[in-house]
Amino acid sequence: MAKCEICGKGRTIGNTIQHQYGGGWFRKAQKKKREFKPNIQKLKIKIAGGSTSVRINICTHCLKTYKNLTQVEPVEKLFISTKKEKAKV
């Protein structure tokens, strides 16, 4: 299973609880084991000062932080800002 190479986030194990069968203190809700998987993406990063690039596994939380640090705006923000500017004129 892939892990985030920045923060080390990986899979965690928890319970799925079926509340439809719970009925009070005498009948507990059924629990089954399940696995929570992080949203891992592959990202290609260019190394500063060179033409080489590295592909890493990164979770979406770290990806958002990386985009904010490098001042790269998502495509949707660019389209929204141009529509608002046109509406004001």
Can you describe what's shown?
The chain is an alpha+beta fold. The protein contains two helices and four strands.
Percentage of residues in helical conformation: 25-40%
Distance between the termini: 52 Å
Strand order of the largest sheet: 1-2
Instruction: Give Rg in angstroms.
Output: 22 Å
Largest sheet: 2 strands, antiparallel
Number of strands: 4
Q: DSSP helix count?
A: 2
How much beta, percentage-wise?
Answer: 25-35%
Oligomer: single chain
In terms of per-residue confidence, which ranges show pLDDT below 50 for 5 or more consecutive residues? 74-84
The average pLDDT score comes to 77
Task: Based on the model shown, name its key terms.
89 residues, alpha+beta, two-stranded antiparallel sheet, 2 helices, 4 strands, 27% helix, 31% strand
Summarize the topology.
Blueprint: E1 12-18, E2 30-36, E3 40-46, E4 53-59, H1 60-69, H2 75-88
Antiparallel strand pairs: 1-2, 3-4
In short:
This protein is an alpha+beta fold and 89 residues long.
